[in-house]
Task: inverse folding
């Protein structure tokens, strides 16, 4: 397999310049870097085709070794047009960034910084949960003829004040968004 | 079994509909499903127990490639388990109908989950395929998560549900690995086959038969598998050290606790132990794990149960304790113990489910489960008290109840085991621990009854609503069964005997066949131990205050819950730390890391391999020495692009490299590439200029300082690495390139001389089709970035646009350099001259170039014809759809640059979207039409016809594909021009008309009133004209109205026409 150093050295230079550019903050430079990288890659693929040869236009009398390898060429052709589309898309992004923020620089992601500063405490995981000893805490309040009188007692349900009777009717094993304003222990309120 | 499963799962899916229709009574309908299955199960008894085989079996193929079958087998163990699952399931579902209210949230989903859970449990105990069993196992885990988290608005429910899920899933994963190891080692995933193998030639009568699997050649793998499977069982059945999730799961509604956490799900772990015990008790670690953890769990659970003040938690810790007890007995692997273990399992399911249901009733009727608040419940409802007393008595082991019978046989088994000839000192430890655990059980049973029902001094009598019979029915039936079981244990004994016989058949203890369950065995050591348990338990109960004080002094050694919290907290900490270190939010950082890895790894590999450079290296290709010049040009261009501090200069320098590469292509023997590259470079350059014109011309370098050095190093290292990687990679190529065949294939198969083109449209047509799809996506992306909504309507006809109204320069100060230039341009501009272009006259005079217009006029059509030529000739000569499409795009670019956006609109009767769609459809059609004609996808055909004038015509159908490519590329170019060109033009003009100019509006307004007025008037006339034209956007109309903001309302009112 033959290796053309000229192609590879040019490729190396293009890669180096392209990498240098995409490490920039300016979006335009990043795009230029990407274009250089695309060019470098095309050269790399071209180099795999070996020696310069004849254009791959078929002729019965020419042995296939004499052509330049057509397969890398087909791959490069695809790559060229795709790079065009990608470049156009990036241009759209740069324009949009400019119209929205008047800058074409890559900003650091503030959300990531915030995440890094987040303490590991999470209320869902780590907050203290009060012991619950009933699924029906309001039953006693609402049962007729029981010690705890229900007349006039209210509970806070969300933003509303409900009479204890109504609240107890709505009380269920599932819904416990009800906090009581009364003392269950009895009598001494 | 498969129909039962299917019916259950289908009923579960339709359950929410029934609930929506009839409310909570739908639970009765749901209960009918397991009830029917229960009846079916009773009829199966004959087949299972009287048949020769001792089981019934159903097998459906599922994934034959992996050897996975929907295999189900009903044997004695599965039958007993199913009896509990379906029976208790029926009762609990019926109980739910009175426990919940019609208005409770998502009742339908809850009912569906309960029923599905019953189905999953049934599937778990009957599955005979390891992986199918695992699927049901995980199903129960997920359903348990959903059911515990039923009250999803409560933090405690959510957290407990998640905790249970995490613990049981972790165990489940371990079990999966174990099952796979086991299945692979045994060569089958059929549970029954594996157990037969494990028993090692079951049926031979000789004692001391060696089990094949546990002690065979693969014994290490089997031992590992068994430990992993046991981990699954331990987590599921809440054994120490994973016992904490079960008390946490008491956040579930009480029927769920009764079913999942007493009768069914937690028994799944016991079931696994019972299922594998006949073959694997000899595996190392089995007995230490099962007996050690079982005993520890029994003692810890009982100890903790004595400390609880919530009656539900007393039961929960009691369940933990009993699960440990069960594991120990079932896992011992002796016939007597197996018999006793299953007997205890049945008894436990009956009494524990009943007790949970009783707790649910108490909670429902009084509103509390706290023993410090409950008082006098027995007096309020004697029936409930009796039901509870029977169940609790069974739990404590009081004769003549089921618990006594079961516990007697357990103790007897352990006494026999402990005094047998193969016993050791630790058997005594087991027996003592067992008795201790039973004492604790007795004590907490008494504490439960006392706490729930007794009248307590100083506590007000708890109000208690009357219980409806339907509510009490379920626990009452369970308690009745407990009593019946205790009085007539023979039937249960009959159910279990075949299972216990498995151990005898394995010949592990030939002298000891399984005994029988019975209420009265005579004066045995077991009875004596029972008496000790009663006495000591009663003492502990009466001395409960002393016990409580003692317990308070003892620190909590084992607090699994806290350990779990710490573990999760540590994982959180690590996650936050790791995220903070790696996820910096800086693209530069990410790229630097990625690229450094990208060069460091190959470079290290190259250095370590230390291979000599391959041969065949040459600096200059003898066939094309000119490459050196092109190379120099490219390198200079690339380096200049780095240094350039003006935007357009940098772009130009990148273009230099692009053109240089086009030259490289040409020299290398790739005319197609050279052509395409030239065209693309040109269009890209135009697109760049169009998109960048609103950005400031300077390209400032903000990433300076130390980072620059890092960038240089990474860049150079990467480039050098790529060079060497390429050299070695190419040097390593030995095979003949596949493309040597391409020229012949292209000519004979593809009917074309241009090998590259035929490769694109025929040999690798799929590839190209994918590519044009990407082009369409990218084009749409560009359009959406600029237009935001849609692709913009087509512009109106240029004849309706006011002359010279497009692209006016507004707000230029007259005395400035720009102003002078503008004045000069206007002086020479002749708006009224003959138009060379259709819409040329719409352009502002200072924007027009007569030469450009004439040239465009002359070559536009030639270019289009040329592009068509490239397209059609491309099959045989350089060209093709890509080059043709790009040429047409270039022609459109010329029209746009020369005549403005209306000219572009006039030049393209079709929208870009239509073009892209048509192109893709054409290409796709050329792919699937051959399929309809009986060929292959993208197959091409060569059609030769004779036409007058043209003579012989050779048409290859792959040209149609190329036409599709052509249209897509034209669409892409058009989208770029319409978005980056025309639409940005409009943005410019809108902002210029709506707002005063950026540079010094005040002075400008004062000093240059005349110019301003004139220009604004013109702009307004244009806006008004646009507004008059049909269907302009409201923004433009508003702009016309807001025109006076520029400071010249009166003049605008004069409606002066453009020059």
Result:
């Amino acid at each position: 397999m033959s290796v053309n150093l000229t192609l590879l050295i040019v490729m190396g230079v293009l890669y180096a310049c392209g990498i240098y550019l995409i490490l920039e903050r300016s979006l335009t430079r990043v795009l230029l870097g990407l274009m250089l990288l695309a060019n470098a890659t095309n050269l790399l693929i071209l180099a795999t085709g070996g020696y310069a040869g004849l254009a791959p236009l078929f002729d019965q009398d020419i042995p296939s070794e004499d052509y330049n390898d057509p397969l890398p060429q087909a791959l490069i052709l695809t790559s060229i047009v795709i790079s065009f589309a990608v470049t156009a898309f990036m241009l759209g992004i740069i324009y949009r960034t400019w119209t929205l923020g008047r800058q074409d620089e890559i900003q650091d992601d503030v959300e990531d910084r915030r995440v890094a500063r987040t303490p590991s405490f999470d209320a869902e995981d780590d907050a203290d949960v009060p012991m619950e000893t009933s699924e029906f805490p309001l039953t006693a309040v609402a049962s007729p003829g029981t010690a705890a009188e229900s007349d006039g007692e209210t509970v806070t349900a969300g933003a509303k004040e409900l009479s204890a009777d109504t609240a107890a009717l709505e009380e269920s094993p599932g819904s416990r968004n009800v906090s009581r304003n009364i003392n269950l222990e009895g009598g001494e309120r | 079994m498969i129909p039962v499963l299917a019916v259950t799962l289908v009923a579960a899916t339709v359950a929410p509909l029934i609930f929506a229709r009839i409310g909570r009574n739908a639970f009765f309908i749901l209960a009918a499903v397991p009830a029917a299955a229960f009846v079916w199960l009773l009829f199966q008894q004959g087949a299972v127990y009287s048949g020769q085989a001792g089981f019934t079996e159903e097998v459906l193929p599922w994934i034959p490639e992996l050897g996975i079958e929907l295999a189900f087998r009903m044997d004695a163990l599965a039958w007993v388990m199913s009896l509990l699952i379906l029976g208790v399931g029926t009762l609990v579902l019926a109980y739910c109908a009175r426990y919940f209210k019609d208005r409770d949230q998502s009742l339908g989903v809850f009912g569906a989950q309960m029923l599905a859970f019953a189905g999953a449990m049934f599937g778990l105990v009957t599955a005979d395929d390891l992986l199918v069993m695992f699927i049901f196992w995980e199903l129960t885990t997920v359903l348990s998560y959903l059911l515990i988290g039923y009250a999803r608005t409560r933090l405690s429910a959510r957290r407990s549900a998640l905790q249970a899920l995490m613990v049981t899933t972790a165990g489940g994963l371990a079990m999966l690995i174990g099952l796979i190891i086991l299945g692979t080692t045994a060569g089958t995933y059929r549970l029954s086959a594996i157990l037969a193998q494990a028993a090692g030639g079951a049926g031979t009568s000789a004692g001391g038969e060696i089990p094949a699997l546990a002690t065979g050649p693969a014994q290490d793998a089997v031992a590992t598998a068994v430990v992993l499977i046991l981990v699954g069982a331990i987590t599921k059945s809440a054994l120490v050290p994973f016992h904490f999730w079960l008390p946490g799961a008491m956040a579930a509604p009480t029927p769920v606790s009764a079913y999942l956490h007493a009768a069914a799900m937690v028994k799944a772990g016991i079931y696994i132990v019972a299922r594998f015990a006949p073959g694997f008790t000899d595996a190392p670690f089995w007995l230490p794990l099962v007996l050690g953890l079982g005993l520890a769990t029994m003692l810890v659970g009982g100890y903790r149960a004595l400390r609880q003040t919530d009656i539900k938690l007393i039961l929960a810790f009691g369940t933990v304790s009993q699960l440990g007890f069960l594991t120990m007995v079932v896992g011992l692997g002796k016939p007597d113990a197996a018999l006793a273990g299953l007997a205890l399992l049945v008894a436990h399911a009956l009494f524990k489910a009943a007790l949970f249901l009783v707790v649910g009733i108490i909670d429902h009727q009084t509103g509390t489960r706290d023993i410090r608040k409950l008082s006098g419940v027995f007096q309020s409802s004697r029936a409930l008290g009796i039901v509870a007393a029977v169940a609790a008595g069974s739990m404590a082991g009081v004769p003549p109840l089921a618990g006594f019978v079961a516990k007697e046989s357990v103790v007897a088994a352990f006494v026999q085991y402990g005094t047998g000839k193969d016993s050791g000192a630790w058997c005594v430890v087991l027996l003592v621990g067992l008795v201790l655990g039973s004492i604790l059980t007795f004590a907490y049973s008494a504490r439960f009854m006392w706490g729930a029902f007794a009248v307590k001094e100083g506590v007000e009598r708890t109000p208690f609503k009357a219980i409806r019979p339907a509510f009490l029915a379920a626990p009452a039936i369970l308690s009745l069964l407990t009593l019946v079981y205790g009085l007539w244990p023979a039937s249960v004994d009959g159910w279990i005997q075949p299972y216990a016989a498995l151990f005898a058949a394995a010949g592990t203890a030939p002298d000891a066949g399984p005994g029988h369950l019975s209420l009265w065995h005579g004066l045995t050591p077991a009875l004596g131990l029972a008496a000790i348990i009663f006495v000591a338990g009663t003492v502990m109960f009466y001395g409960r205050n002393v016990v409580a004080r003692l317990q308070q002094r003892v620190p909590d050694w084992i607090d699994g819950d806290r350990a779990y919290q710490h573990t999760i907290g540590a994982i959180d900490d690590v996650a936050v730390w790791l995220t903070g270190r790696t996820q910096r939010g800086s693209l530069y950082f990410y790229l630097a890391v990625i690229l450094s890895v990208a060069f460091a790894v190959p470079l290290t590999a190259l250095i370590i391999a230390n291979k000599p450079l391959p041969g065949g290296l040459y600096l200059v290709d003898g066939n094309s020495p000119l490459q050196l010049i092109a190379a120099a040009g490219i390198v200079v261009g690339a380096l200049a692009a780095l240094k350039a501090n003006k935007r357009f200069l940098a772009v130009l320098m990148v273009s230099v490299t692009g053109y240089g590469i086009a030259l490289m292509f040409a020299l290398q023997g790739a005319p197609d590439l050279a052509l395409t590259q030239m065209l693309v470079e040109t269009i890209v350059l135009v697109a760049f200029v169009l998109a960048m014109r609103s950005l400031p011309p300077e390209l400032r370098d903000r990433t300076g300082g130390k980072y620059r050095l890092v960038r240089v190093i990474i860049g150079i290292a990467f480039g050098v690495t790529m060079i060497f990687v390429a050299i070695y990679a190419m040097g390593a190529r030995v095979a003949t390139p596949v493309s040597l065949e391409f020229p012949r294939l292209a000519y004979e198969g593809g009917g074309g001389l241009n090998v590259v083109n035929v490769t694109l449209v025929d040999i690798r047509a799929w590839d190209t089709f994918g590519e044009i799809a990407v082009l369409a996506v990218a084009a749409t992306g560009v359009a959406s970035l600029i237009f935001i909504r849609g692709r913009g309507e087509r512009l109106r006809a240029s004849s309706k646009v006011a002359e010279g109204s497009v692209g006016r320069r507004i707000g230029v100060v007259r005395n400035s350099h720009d102003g002078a230039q503008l004045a000069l341009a206007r002086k020479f501009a002749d708006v009224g001259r003959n138009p060379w272009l259709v819409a040329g006259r719409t352009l502002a005079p200072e924007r027009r170039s007569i030469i450009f217009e004439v040239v465009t006029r002359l070559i536009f059509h030639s270019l289009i014809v040329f592009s068509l030529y490239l397209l059609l000739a491309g099959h045989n000569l350089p060209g093709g759809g890509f080059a043709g499409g790009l040429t047409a795009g270039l022609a459109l670019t010329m029209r746009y640059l020369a005549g403005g956006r209306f000219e572009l609109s006039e030049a393209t009767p079709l929208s870009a979207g239509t073009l892209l769609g048509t192109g893709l459809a054409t290409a796709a059609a050329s792919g699937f039409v051959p399929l309809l004609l009986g060929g292959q996808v993208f197959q091409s055909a060569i059609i030769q016809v004779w036409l007058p004038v043209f003579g012989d015509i050779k048409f290859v159908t792959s040209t149609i594909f190329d036409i599709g490519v052509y249209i897509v590329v034209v669409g892409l170019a058009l989208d770029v021009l319409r978005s980056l060109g025309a639409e940005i033009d409009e943005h410019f003009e809108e902002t210029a008309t709506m707002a005063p100019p950026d540079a010094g509006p005040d002075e400008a307004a004062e000093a240059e009133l005349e110019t301003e007025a004139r220009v604004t008037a013109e702009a307004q006339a244009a806006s008004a004209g646009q507004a008059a034209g049909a269907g302009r956007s409201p923004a433009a109309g508003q702009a016309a109205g807001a025109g006076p903001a520029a400071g010249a309302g009166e003049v605008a009112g004069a409606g002066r026409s453009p020059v």
Notes: Chain B touches chain A through 166 residues (CB under 8 Å).
